[in-house]
Structure formats: structure tokens, C-alpha cells
Amino acid sequence: MSAPQYKTVNFTLNGVETHKMIDVRSSLMDMLRDNYSLHSVKEGCAVGECGACTVLIDGEVFNACIYLAVWVEGKEVITTEGLTGPNGELSEVQQAFVDEFAVQCGFCTPGFVVAAEALIRSGKTYTRDQLRKNLAGNLCRCTGYENIINAVETALERHHAAKVNAKVE
Amino acid sequence: MYDMKALYEAESVDHAISLLVEHPEAMVLAAGSDVFIKLREGKLAGREFVSIYMLDEMRGVTLEEDGTIRIGSLTSFSHIVESEIIQEFIPVLADAVLMIGGPQIRNLGTIGGNTCNGVTSADSGATLLALDAEVELKSPEGVRIIPLSEFYIKPGVVDLRPAELQTALLIRKAAYDGYIGQHFIKYAMRNAMDIATLGCSVNVKLSDDKQVIEDCRIGFGVAGPVPMRLPQAEDTVRGEVISKDLIEAFGEATKHDVNPRTSWRATKEFRLHLIETMAMRCLTESIIKAGGVVE
Hints:
The complex is a heterodimer.
Chain A: E1 6-13, E2 16-23, H1 28-35, E3 54-57, E4 60-63, E5 76-78, H2 92-99, H3 109-121, H4 128-134, H5 146-168
Parallel strand pairs in A: 1-5
Antiparallel strand pairs in A: 1-2, 3-4, 3-5
Helix pairs in contact in A: 2-5, 3-5
Chain B: E1 4-9, H1 13-22, E2 27-29, H2 35-40, E3 47-51, E4 61-63, E5 69-72, H3 77-82, H4 84-89, H5 91-97, H6 103-108, H7 111-116, H8 125-130, E6 134-139, E7 142-147, H9 148-151, E8 152-154, E9 157-158, E10 165-171, H10 173-176, E11 181-187, E12 198-206, E13 213-221, E14 228-229, H11 231-237, H12 244-257, H13 268-289
Parallel strand pairs in B: 1-3, 2-3
Antiparallel strand pairs in B: 4-5, 5-10, 6-7, 6-10, 8-9, 11-12, 12-13, 13-14
Helix pairs in contact in B: 11-12, 12-13
């Protein structure tokens, strides 16, 4: 490996503006784990197949393992840590994962939670087949996906029901 | 940490080209969904890279005054799928790129990277060829525009000259106007996150009474060393009255155009069988979508 080449990257991380001097060869995953201690960003396959390192960049899902840290300049990054409330309240997706027993070993869970969050934020509704297609970039080796899909379905149902209730009130 | 010798971040298209002139050994890094994986494997270890990922001027789908659909080379697959222009005029391209990887990969991967890689299994290749796409290239010598069919040279090699950058893919109005029957089929072992065993893209233009195929174009991925058109199959149906026999003749003719190989994904014999079947199905679907009937 060659000599380090440093650069400052300015971005918004979980709602907070930040900047960090980093080696330009770092992946986004390296920076989030090593420089920000955000360990929900898991290193699974490291080649963009398993989705364990999924983060939101400007509202879209990306694998942090195949993305350069310097490329988030000026962008908004959200990890699972950024989804919980100020006092540790669980997000709609996280609560649904708890309620539906959608977790076994838990390694893939943060990636799934972020991927599901993107679906919630899209404001769209999804059939079960569409959910499978939209979560195809995340692998789980324990659950067989059934409870995960149930959880995302529940989160979406609750989210849309809450929106309807809000309109009624 | 990726094993790069150096990374040069381009600030504009012209800056990217001057960086490529300055560093002739450097590789262009678009979104890196293939490059980073090769780096992990050690294949590109120690190389220099010119990153063009931050160049938003190379993103987006636009409709030019003469009706040309211009797709910036860095447009992600997701943005192609969402583009109203693509959905209205060439929905088959959206269908094709929606088969790539999963959401994370489609948000990252770019149509320019997919074509510049020069791999036969690229899901966009067959469709772009079947739409007579052209490639816009920029270098210190200026801009040149060539057909995509000439851009592909051999596996992994495309007609990119020193310090040249692919800036856009162009689809002319004449290439899509009236071609309302469009269909794409990907054959792979899994429904997602898989590389194509074969990819087939067909578009047809029917006569006003929907009885005759005025024009038909078919592109295939993995039917040969690079994505290819099937000229003999196209000639078989052009100007002919639609019938079941014609569809079968079309399938039969594909054999003369293709040159698939045996790989761990499929044998040559299996691929030949698939090519015939997929071509017939794809043509039938295209005719139906264009308002025709196959009896």
C-alpha cells in the first residue's frame, strides 16, 4: 500500500454536520466504523453483496463497503444509530423488528433496518413480492426472511395508518 | 482501506481529461461497483485512479430538441428506472437495468460504467444495442460520437483512446419513434443479485394494420464475447407478415448469428437452446405489446 493521501470530508452524519480528515483510500464503511465508532455498519462480504453495511446517502440505500468516504462530501448520511430518537426510542422499523421476532443472530439486522427505512420514507406501498425485490440486496443466513418481511410489512402498515390518522385529526 | 497508489478527484469533465493526460497510467473510477471488488481481490492493487463520481454534470436523462434521448454516463440504474423520459419512450431499458443486482447496486452502478467495462453479461448492453445507441466520448482532441456496436471491441476492451472519457449514451429519435413493442428477458439462476446467463432485448415496429413487422431489432448479452445484435434473425422477419411460423424461423435464424461459450454458468449447448427460446418469446411479447397478434 502506498503513502497516505489525506483530505477533509464535510458531510451531515445522522443529522449532525461534521468534518473529518481521512485517508482518501478509506471506504465509507472504514470511516464510519473507525473514525465515528458507528458499529451498526457491519463488514459482511465487503464486496457489495450482503448489504450488512447498508447506509442511507441522500435518502438512497448504498453499501458503505464499496463507496469512497470522500464521496460523501456535502451529502447526508444516515446509519441505524441515526434512526433512534433522542432518548433511545426505537424507530417504527426497529419496533416492528422487535414485535415480529425478525432477529436471530442480528448481524444483518442494521442493514435490513436501514433498507426498510428507505421504503418507509418513499411514502409508497408495497406488495409482499415488491418487498422481497426491494430487500434483495440484504442477505440473512438465519431467519429464512419470513419474519423480516413480516416486520417490514408491519412497519409500513403502521406508518401508513399513522399518516391516515394524522390527516383525520 | 483500498489498495490504491493514488486517487485524483475530478472537479469537471475537462479536469478529468487533464488528469488522465497528466497520469496516463491511471484508470477511470466511475462508481466503482466493479473496481472496488477487483481491488479487494488484489487484481487492480497499487493502481492510480481518476475518480469522476462527483461530476453531477454527467448525471441525468434529458430529451434534446431533435428528440435524442441523452443519458449522462454517470446516471445510476435507479435513476434510469425512475426517469419519465425513459418510461415514456424506451421502457425496455428500465426493465433491463431493473434486473441488475439489488437496490444498493442499482443506486450506485452507472450506465457508463456498465458499458465501459466491456463485459458481455452487462444487463444494459443488449438493450442499448437493440436501440442503436451511440456513445459520446470526450478527449483532448475533442468530442467523437460512435455507435455502441463499434465501441465494444473484445471482452473487457472498449474503444476508449488515451485520456478519453465516455460522457453520455445517445438514443436517436429514429431509433425509438414507432418502436412501441419492446421486451427484455434476463435468464439467471436467481431472481435478483445474479449475473445473466443470457440477456435478450427485442423491439419491433409494426405496420398500421398490425399485420406486418416493419422493423425488428434484437440484442443479446452473453451470446458471444461482447453484447451483440443478430442481423440474420432480424432480416428473417423484417417486412414479413406475423405468424407462428415466422416466429419459429426467427428462433432458428438466431443460431447463425451467435457464438456462445461454455462457462460454469451454462454450457454452449444449453445457451444455444436458450437463445432460440428467449428470442422467440421476446419477439412474441414485443409484437403483443405493439398491438399485434401471434396466431
